[in-house]
Write a structure and sequence with these properties.
The structure is a homodimer. Chain A is about 55% helix and about 5% strand. By secondary structure, the first copy, chain A, is mainly α. Chain A has a domain of about 90 residues: Winged helix-like DNA-binding domain superfamily/Winged helix DNA-binding domain (Arc Repressor Mutant, subunit A). Chain A has a two-stranded antiparallel ribbon with strand order 1-2. Chain A is elongated, with a radius of gyration of 19 Å. At the A-B interface, helix 1, helix 2, helix 5 and helix 6 of A face helix 1, helix 2, helix 5 and helix 6 of B. Chain A binds a DNA duplex through helix 3.
Chain lengths: ~150, ~150
DNA sequence: CGTCAATGTAACTATACCGGTTACATTTAC
DNA sequence: GTAAATGTAACCGGTATAGTTACATTGACG
């Protein structure tokens, strides 16, 4: 992916976390993200399918977190909104060349290695961590899973 | 990035590694990658700027590795051809909202964490590893840096 | 020194993807 | 029943990318 869907989703969930159970509608979220409510609803839809939020339709409806912020990881969000891989394979290598014939499998392996590393990283950051950093603008108490 | 430039670069370097110092021209590489020579030359150009390969212009010219395959990591290649980050920030959050005002810094931090994880992973895979996997189609002897 | 082969690069095109927007059917509270 | 909200389709415009053509530049070699 090279889209902003993940960024929009994190922003949205941060708002929901601060709303503390009070459902927010797509119009209000769109105002903070500074985009169109439909863009938000598209993200909300993916997050609801992943059981990260619960959405109520109809008048007075809106979205709220399905569980506490410290129980939602960025990996949950990543999986909900993310389609493709970090880099694209090239479409059709020449199969008459020994390298062309087998490079695809090697590149798939590299993709998997990258994706595994990304997922390991995102699994260690929770929505609560994001909210904590929001409020202070600085990193708060050192978070449990952090490396480096 | 979500382009195939990285894939093309790895494919290209695998060919050069197997050529064992014999320079290959963009036409030959393009044939194996199954694309246009200009696309290859664009990749070659970036790789030469990063000192991963040496390119000779003029008649009988072409590209060759600048050092041994086991001294070239996928991180070298990634850095040479890669522009952007794994995901995009959303352009302009609403600054009158406290979340909108500070979410950008948090997302930048997440980007950095992801990029660091990706780079750590790529730094542990060499071009030699890629070539070994090419030749057998299977993973060869367990490589030094591997995790999981 | 001239020729030829190769790179480096600009320019253009076609395609794909994405965000933004409008529109509307569906759902739900009151 | 009405109003308010979601879910989703359809479309538009901008942007990035791969592919292509073209050409100036470079360099080997007779």
């Amino acid at each position: 992916m090279a889209s902003s869907r993940f960024a929009v989703a994190v922003h949205t969930l941060a708002l929901l976390a601060r709303a503390e159970g009070q459902p927010l509608d797509s119009r209000a979220i769109a105002h903070s993200v500074n985009t169109n409510p439909v863009v938000i609803r598209r993200a909300l839809c993916a997050l609801a399918r992943a059981r990260v939020i619960r959405v109520r339709r109809g008048a007075g409806g809106g979205a709220a977190l399905a569980r506490a912020p410290h129980e939602i990881t960025l990996l949950d969000i990543y999986r909900a909104v993310n389609g493709g891989a970090a880099f694209a394979l090239h479409p059709a290598p020449q199969r008459r060349c020994p390298v062309g014939r087998s490079i695809h499998a090697v590149l798939c392996w590299v993709q998997d290695e990258i994706d595994a590393a990304v997922q390991r990283t995102l699994a260690e950051i929770t929505l609560q961590d994001v909210v904590d950093r929001l409020q202070t603008g600085r990193r708060p108490t050192p978070t449990r899973g952090r490396k480096r």
